[in-house]
Amino acid sequence: MSDELVFYTNPMSRGRIVRWMLEEVGVPYRTVTLDYASTMKAPDYLAVNPMGKVPAITHRGVAVTEGAAICAYLADAFPEAGLAPATSDPQRGVYYRWLMFACGPIEAAVTNKSMGFEVPPERRMSAGYGCIEDVLNALEQAVTGKQYLAGDKFSAADVYVGSQIGWGMMFGTIEKRPAFEAYWAGISQRPAAKRASEIDDALIAAAKAAQPA
């Protein structure tokens, strides 16, 4: 069983979240950059993720997909990085709560908004997230006056939730509320976040330079 950590991604994808997490963890990893039109749907990669989507990782003989799951896995696989509250810490519950809130209600609400779909008021009881207003109000409450989501330490929840907030404000699917801007401004300046962006931005630039004129 190989201990090699392999990261499958595309620099213009949610893989940027996992890149940030990997840089926070600080262990060596190998990047496999996939193309949407070809290698992401090739048999070799479908054996890793049958959905044919990124990000994904393989480590110690196991494939892990879904951004939130990868962040949680990396935090537990490399506890020396200190990116998750201890299992005995009550903040572990807070950590799980907002990590899963981001990959559930936030992801669904923001995706629907970006596609122009709004849950009719009479159907909100049937939708797990209800409506995007409820989601954003809950998220605002979570980050108001907070440097980090789970106690006084940065965690994988901040990587994942923060990325959702940062991207959402950038693309207009999440309102630029003062609490969101203040929270994002704090965590987006972390050295690992900057390194991750520089790596992926360089990959995008290289791909553009390689395109025929």
Structure summarized in a few sentences:
The chain has 213 residues and is of the alpha+beta class.
Description:
The chain contains 8 helices and 4 strands. It starts with 5 loop residues before the first strand and ends with a helix. The model has no long low-confidence stretch (mean pLDDT 96). Helix content is 51%, strand content 8%. With 213 residues, the chain is α+β, with helices and mostly antiparallel strands. It has a 4-stranded mixed sheet, with helices on one face.
Features:
4 strands, 8 helices, single chain, globular, alpha+beta, 213 residues, four-stranded mixed sheet
Alpha-carbon Rg, integer:
18 Å
Overall 3D geometry? globular
- Oligomeric state of shown chains: single chain
User: Major beta sheet, specifics?
Assistant: 4 strands, mixed
Q: How much is the average pLDDT? A: 96
Distance between the termini: 44 Å
Q: Strands of the largest sheet, in order across it?
A: 2-1-3-4
What structural class do the secondary elements suggest? Answer: alpha+beta
Strand content: 5-15%
Q: Give the helix tally.
A: 8
Helical fraction equals 40-55%
Note poorly predicted spans. Answer: none
Sequence of secondary-structure elements: EHEHEEHHHHHH
Number of DSSP-assigned strands? 4
